Each structure stands twice: as structure tokens, then as C-alpha cells.
Amino acid sequence: MMSLSVALLLMLTFLFFWKLAKWKLVPRLNYPRSLPSLPIIGSLLQLAGQPQVHLLFHRLQQKYGNLYSLYMGSHYVVVVNNYLHAKEVLLKKGKIFAGRPRMVTTDLLTRNGKDIAFATYSPLWKFQRKLVHSALSMFGKGSLALEKIICQEAASLCGILNVTQESSLDIASELTRAVTNVVCNLCFKSSYHRGDAEFEAMLQYSQGIVDTVAKEGLVDIFPWLQSFPNKDLALLKQCVAMRDQLLYQQFAKHKEAFNGDSANDLMDVLLKAKLNMENNNSHLLQGQGLTEDHLLMTVADIFGAGVETTTTVLKWIVLYLLLYPEVQQKIQDELDQKVGYNRNPQLSDRLHMTYLEATISEVLRIRPVSPLLIPHEALEDTSIGEYDIPKGARIVINLWSIHHDEKEWDKPGEFNPGRFLDESGNHIYSPSPSYLPFGAGVRVCMGEVLAKMELFLFMAWILQRFTLSIPEGHTLPEPEGKFGVVLQVPNFKVKATLRKAWEGLEVDQ
Ligand code: STR
User: How far is CA 131 from the centre of its chain?
Assistant: First the structure.
């Protein structure tokens, strides 16, 4: 009898402390507010049929606040819509949030994360980044080499605009070829001519990849769907196979010509680093060195990123210049004053060409190339602001919201390059810290310097010589981007008319 009441008492005491521990002593975790979600499909009912994910996430702030969470299938996703939280994720806790989630489509594209952009954080990843960084700065030495390559392409682009004057021109594909040739030169020391069959093939597979990769499509949410026939996945596989074929050709050529000493392009630099690593077994990468796959995927990444992003921004700039001819006029006035007609624009002009620089900054704000960046993953239990974030959570930074925050930007929907200039117009500055066109922190864009050089030089060369306008009988599309790994520009036609002062002059040198 006695032992029974002792046992009962013990049990009650245990229950009491257990409850106390659960509700009082162990603090309850404070997760961000969540969208309604169902088992298995998560919050998909709210997301279904809304392809413009960046706009949807922007709107959802009104109801759920600027930090909220949702479930993509079984994946817990936190959406960040405010720059303070974004900076905490990218800068203050950069390393904790430096992971990348694995996705079916990016795994296919990158041979299970052997690239830089989509691979998760690891010592080898850091090494790869360092290598590419040093290769890029080798080209930038005094920025001379790159400047020369870009100007060469700008000249040939102007030659083509001159030939096609007066007729309506698909400027997008000319811009793409110019940008592709810069990156080709950087990666492989090669380039394409107009109408080149390999170039056409490259255009085709790149578009296929952009159309299918990392769009939070169903396959990325429910990996088991990949065992069913899937049109997007089939297209992606076909495009990746086309890319691999071109990549192998370059690889074989480089391996054959490689002599171990000189490195002429990015592929040589990577080949050299791989050899060094193999000769130097003391490297602390636990036998997990740079494989051939790592090398190929790194080059493919730089190539894809270098082409898609810069071309997209150039297309946005041209579209905005057609929509706002007065902005184009102002840039041309600035060019006439600061550069004139007797010489070509060069990088050192960037310092004085503040209106063109401000226009580029404003385009990068109003139409960020990467509206949701690439999702990050929390590598341990952590927090954002006052909210707890569990390990494994996917963090989506909504750059669209950050660049359209009404508390930070005056009339954010309006295109106004002047907002980036001080009163004198001679100095460019950012009126708000809510501006991260290249991301920030451990995974910040590696091509920022190159991109800014290209945007400036291509636009300066074109506008020095030509005025862009809408061809007769054509109308412009609304400048609403289509969501994807990059914010895609609608198609439009352009007429490039040679400016008066250039008549009779050579425009392509
Ligand atoms: C474009 C299409 C292609 O052929 C290869 C790639 C791989 C790198 C990707 C690129 C893509 C799209 C833009 C990305 C880039 C890495 C960094 C860049 C996602 C899919 C941005 O973050 C904007």
C-alpha cells in the first residue's frame, strides 16, 4: 500500500516537472508567422497558379508581415522582405546561412552541386571560389585586358547596328552575342561570329535551362515526381547534354594545348590548379580534391552566369531607354560633353559619366536580375531578428520587395535615375541601404566588377553613336519581367539610327 502511494507520488512529481519544463523552463521557440499549410502539399494552395513568385511574396507581406514562413511541400521556407533581415542573413550570419538546398533541377545542372552558385558551403567550395576569384582578377589586372576585350566586342556590335539601321532589329540577340563573346574570351579564349551554328545552339540550350531550372517547379518541391514523365525535366536533360558536349570539346582542346606554365584563360587556370593540387598531396581537403567534374561545372557556371545576367540587364536598360527617351537624351548629352566624338568611351570615363551610371543603378533596382536571389539554407539552428530559424530552413531573400520598399524608396515603382544622384548631379550615391543588386556576404556575386564594366562600356559605345527608338508600326511591351532564375525581359524590336555627328565616320573602331 505504502509503495503504491510512493510510486503515485513520484509519478505526479515527474509529470509536474515535465509539464513545467515543457511550458516554462524550456523557452518555447518563436518561429516566423506561417502561411496556412496542409500535410504533404504544405502551402501550395496559396502558391499554385501564381508564376510571378516575387510579386506574390511581395504582396503576402501585407497580411503576414515582412518575415514569414511557408511550406513548399515538406520544405520549410522563410521569406525575407526587408533589408535589415536580409543583411543579418547575408552578412552578420553569412556563414550560418551559406548553405544551399539540394534541388532536383540544380543537381542535374551541376552534377550534384559541383559548381559554385548552387553548391552548398564546404572547404572545397571555398577553394573553388578563391580560384575563380584570382582568375577573374588576373584578367582585370589594371582592368586593362578585360577593357580591351569588351571594347572589341562593343565595336563589332556597333558595326552591326550600323548595317541594320532603319530596319527593326532584334537587338537582344546582338547584345547576347557581344556578351557571350566576352565570356567566351575569358573562359576559353574563343569567340563567335554572326550566324555561327554553335552560337545558335548555345542560345537554344541556355534558354531551355533558364526556362526549367530552380523555379520552385513541382519537381523541386516533390522530388519523387521525377520518376514520372516530365516535359520540363526532359527539356532540361536535353539542354544539359548539349551544354556538356560543347564543354567537353573545349576541355579536350585545352588539355591538349596545356603546357603547365602559362594560363591564358579560366579553363587553363583551373587545369593548373587541379594539377598543383594533385602534385601536392598535403592539401587538407581529405582526399576530396578538385575533380574533372568540379572543373567543368565551375566553367559552366561562370559561362552561364556571365551570359544570362549581363544580357538580361542590357535588355532591361534598352527597354527603359525606349520607354523614357528623355533619359536616353540626357545620357547622350553627358557623352557629348564628357567624351565627345573624337575618341571611344573607356572605363576611366565612368567617374564622370554619372548620369549613365545612375541609370544603370536604377535599372538594377527596379528590375533586379535575380528577384529572389538563390535560396540559402540554414546550416544550424539560428535566428533572424527576434525569430528562431531551425537548421535546414530555406531562406528566400526577396530582393524585389527590398528594392520596392516604400519606407526606403520614394515612389519605388517609378523609374527615376536621378534618385541615385546628389543635388549637383556630379556624384552618385545610394539614397537607401535597401539596395543589394549583387547580393552580399559569403555568396556575393563574383561577376560584379565584370558586369559593371560591360554595362557601362556597351551602353556608352552604343549611345555615343546611335539613338535607339521604337520602329514604326511596333509597340513596346509592358516592362513586366517574367520570373525565373533571372527576371526575363519581354521581346521587343529596336531601330538604331546613326547620330548626325557620326555620319561618314567609322563606327566600328
Ligand atoms: C543560366 C543558364 C545556363 O546555361 C547556366 C546557368 C548557371 C549559372 C546561373 C545561370 C544559369 C542563371 C543566373 C544565375 C547563375 C548563377 C548566378 C546567377 C542563377 C542557370 C544569379 O544568381 C542571377
Answer: 20
Closest CA to 94 of 402, 477, 382, 481: 382
DSSP one-letter string for 84-134 = HHHHIIIIITTTTT-B----HHHHHHHTTT-SSSSS---HHHHHHHHHHHH
Q: What is 365-431 written as a DSSP string? A: HHS-SSTT-S-EE-SSSEEETTEEE-TT-EEEE-HHHHHT-TTTSSSTTS--GGGGB-TTSS-B--S
Residue spans per domain, the chain: 26-502
The angle that helices 292-323 and 325-338 make with each other, rounded to 10 degrees, is 100
- Write out pLDDT tens, residues 178-226: 999 999 999 998 888 888 899 889 889 999 999 899 877 777 877 877 8
| Nearest-angstrom CA–CA distance, 305 and 389 | 30
Ligand 1 centroid–CA 306 distance in Å is 8
Residue list, ligand 1 pocket, CB within 6 Å: 117, 206, 209-210, 213, 301, 304-305, 308-309, 369-370, 374, 485-486
Residue nearest (by alpha carbon) to ligand 1 atom 5: 304
CATH number attached to the domain at 26-502: 1.10.630.10
Please identify, by atom number, the ligand 1 atom nearest to the C-alpha of residue 307.
1
- Which of 109, 246, 308, 374 maximizes ligand 1 atoms within 8 Å of its Cβ, making it the mutation to test the pocket? 308
Give the single-character DSSP code of 38: B
pLDDT digits (tens, 9 = 90+) for 137-162: 877 664 458 999 999 999 999 999 99
Distance 500 CA to ligand 1 centre (A): 40
CB of 208 within 8 A of CB of 193? no
- Atom 12 of ligand 1, nearest CA residue: 305
pTM of the entire predicted model: 0.92
